[in-house]
Amino acid sequence: MTIEKMALAKAINESLRTALEADPKVLVMGEDVGKLGGVFRVTDGLQKDFGEERVIDTPLAESGIVGTAIGLALRGYRPVVEIQFDGFVFPAYDQIVTQLAKMHARALGKIKLPVVIRIPYGGGIGAVEHHSESPEALFAHVAGLKVVSPSNAGDAYWMMQQAIQSDDPVIFFEPKRRYWDKGEVDKDAIPGPLHRARVAREGADLTLAAYGPMVKVCLEAAAAAQEEGKSVEVLDLRSMSPIDFDSIQASVEKTRRLVVVHEAPVFLGTGAEIAARITERCFYHLEAPVLRVGGYHAPYPPARLEEEYLPGLDRVLDAVDRSLAY
């Protein structure tokens, strides 16, 4: 067993390298992914080692990038596309939702589109406008797309492997403010299913469910709550489509309380679907309504205000207290 400690960004780089070595049909495409190695250096060194025909610097044209990836997938390739920043994905939204997501169904299962679209997302890095969005609910709503987000280096490595191997299109949201967080990566591990949630911390009094960048905040909240005698379980959802409702239900039947946390706005966010489903499934187990913590229903603010916009430790702990007060 070989366990290495590395940053989340490095884990994705290593995963892409492994996939490129294993399958000549795997390609990496995007703006500045080659010579520059990506603006976050996630693809650093890949073009040097695999050449310009497999790690491709594209024009600044997101619709064209995704459209080209669809064509390549139709010819048997497995393109991994990078959208440089979350807010840049919208010019490609039409290609993703009307072509990429629907081709399998339109062809009655005869055509598969194994395309991975990598999207650095979320705030916390002090970026300018259009660089700190959390649009995951827009894609989770679209049938035909898998939508996932790792919270740590180990998951980043293995979830990318699984996404590339998937015959269905996968939207792979990378929490950019966690790129430099280090964690253990076991390259010899046997990973669990891509869409199964993970219990990140055991607890008995309340469940905090989160994914991507907010898992770390929830773990910090659980540690703070423990100092006050509260036992909080943290569930890393890992997948926003499909959602592992069975794991959430199992946790809630144990703790009888649920708070869902994400950076995206609370209004019509992923937490709304989870709250509705778990209320249906666990009505007679719940001792408090399912609460949600997230961003405000407003455009992402200038960098100097983002700490007020992003859900932090205090807002999560406030929700924990409100739930336990019922």
Automatic annotation (TrEMBL):
InterPro entries noted in UniProt: THDP-binding (IPR029061), Transketo_C/PFOR_II (IPR009014), Transketolase-like_Pyr-bd (IPR005475), Transketolase_C (IPR033248)
Cofactor(s) named in the record: thiamine diphosphate
Domain named Transketolase-like pyrimidine-binding: residues: 6-181
SMART domains per UniProt: Transket_pyr (SM00861)
Keywords from the UniProt entry: Oxidoreductase, Thiamine pyrophosphate
One function term, GO molecular function aspect: oxidoreductase activity
Pfam family, one: Transket_pyr
PANTHER family the record matches: PYRUVATE DEHYDROGENASE E1 COMPONENT BETA SUBUNIT, PYRUVATE DEHYDROGENASE E1 COMPONENT SUBUNIT BETA
Protein's recorded name: Alpha-ketoacid dehydrogenase subunit beta
Source species of the chain: Streptomyces triticiradicis
